[in-house]
């Protein structure tokens, strides 16, 4: 894509303010602020994937990287599961899109198959819903939990801020991946 072909602004590349699903409020309190940031980053990743075919979603960045938008969705489903279900809920169940024997299952398994795309988005949405249910009950951000996989302790606050950081980093990746696919930038 040459600089003459690059289109920015509302020409199909950015959501108009009235169509942007993200909220920009004035949340009251620490938990409300954390939830707004987390929700908006989740919505940003969804915007980056919006309207793409399975082939486009599975398009990888530059070799040797296996990163793709679909891989990021699978990865964030895994991250939501690990931190909300395994760490904060204390569940003992297999991790999503993970294998001890194979590195980067979340990214390597992100192939241009409609069933894989549907599974990834369904898993991600299910994990977001489960996380939001946990957040609805959250009261003490200073409480600590013991991580089942290494025995370390972490505060609820640290885990929630880590989730924002995780999404922020990967939304930056998603922005670059989407721009390479069709020129869409920003937001």
Total tally of structural domains: 1
Mean pLDDT: 88
> What structural category do the secondary elements indicate?
mainly alpha
Under the CATH scheme, which architecture would be assigned? Up-down Bundle
List the quaternary state of the chains.
single chain
CATH class: Mainly Alpha
Q: Kindly state the number of beta strands.
A: 2
In which order are the strands of the major sheet placed? 1-2
Organism: Actinoplanes octamycinicus
Protein name: Putative damage-inducible protein DinB
InterPro entries: DinB/YfiT-like, MST-like
Pfam families: MST
Walk me through this protein's architecture.
It is a single chain. This protein is mainly α and 187 residues long. It is built from six helices and two strands. It has a two-stranded antiparallel sheet with strand order 1-2. A hairpin with a 6-residue loop joins strand 1 (144-146) and strand 2 (153-155). This is Putative damage-inducible protein DinB. It holds the Pfam family MST.
Fill in the keyword field for this structure.
Four Helix Bundle (Hemerythrin (Met), subunit A); mainly alpha; single chain; 187 residues; 6 helices
Short description:
This protein has 187 residues and is mainly α. It has a single domain (17-182), classed as Four Helix Bundle (Hemerythrin (Met), subunit A). 53% of the residues lie in helices and 3% in strands.
Topology:
Layout lengths: L29 H20 L4 H4 L11 H20 L16 H4 L5 H24 L6 E3 L6 E3 H27 L5
Antiparallel strand pairs: 1-2
Helix pairs in contact: 1-6, 3-5, 3-6
